[in-house]
User: Fold Regulatory protein, Fis family from Giesbergeria anulus.
Amino acid sequence: MAATLPIWPPPPGQGSSALDWIFEDPRSKTLLAEVEQVAPSHANILITGETGTGKELIARHLHYRSARRNGPFVVVSCGAFSESLVDAELFGHENGAFAGAFGTQIGWFEAAHGGTIFLDEINDLPLTVQNKLLRVLQEHEIVRLGGRKPIPIDVRIVAAATADLDEMVQQKRFRKDLYYRLNVVRLHVLTLRERPGDIVPLARYFMELYSRKLGYARLRLTPQAEQLLMQAPWPGNVRELENTIHRSLLLCDGEVLDASSLRLLHPASATAAAPAPSAAHLLAPEPETTTPAQPPKPQTSLVQGDSAAHAALRHAIRQLCDANAAHLYQSVEDTLLREVFRYCHYSQSETARLLGVSRNIVRARLIRLGEVSGSRKHPADADDTDLPYPTTSNKETP
Assistant:
């Protein structure tokens, strides 16, 4: 008889064995042991790792293993707000603090009082807000935008970053003193390919989760399918694995998920080279279901003079010049942004990292292109948060 999968997160005050079941790889178990050691303390935690590895899940586990488990757990995506709004969102504002500020609004730090605040993508915080955050860490109080009265807060800060903060400190894009304040304990979440022992347990978990949501009977994963999952590169980490299982279940006809039923975006055996695209094809927006290009192999250096890809790109640009294409620069730039966005599995943070520009620039241009909505979201629902699995947890709101 198959075991019943654990519910995550557990009700406040109860323990959880979900991570113990999902994290089967020895390196993941080592990480969980570190979490268990530091969770009871009040120390600030810095969690690092690639997008989609499960940093928010680790932060939630820290919260539910701490003495703050009965308090709120507030998730804030630091890159989800413009520079002009992030201060007011984090620390709140008083009536009339800026144009459109009607009434007093508490910020996310006040909402997290007595609990834990998870600052995702903290590397996206502007320097001016970093200064204010440093004072919050030192004085344990906040001042709302437009206010003068300090408000005491009792909050544990767990921050996450996908960028290299050491390098950002050297480049003076992140405050050194803030970095040391946050980096009391550092937990690094490995990529999925670095902890292969987690792949099959996670796949089974997502099969159970989405089978219930879709009203399917419980499906079985064949040994051949398990082997194929283990061999896949998983550049999108756990998020890509979740999407793969969901997509495969939607397209599966039988009660068994075998190797032929898996819809992998990055199969390990995909080595066939694609023909050079035409200029018209390069500028045409592709449908949402387009399979992203195979990422370059690790440690592969592309030299512009020798790369077939660069040669195809130069040829396409010359075709556009010959065709006297209108708004050539803007068309090429828009196409580049769209394709990198799809290649990064619609992750704004990864797109910004790959292009070498800020997250705010990427978001503004994606809104202009209609790729993402310009409407404001709850920080916990903003794009690029590392979604916990299962995805049925309730978010805290102020």
Notes: Strands lie at 45-48, 73-77, 116-120, 141-142, 151-152, 156-161, 185-188, 220-221, 256-257. Residues 170 and 197 are 36 Å apart (CA to CA).
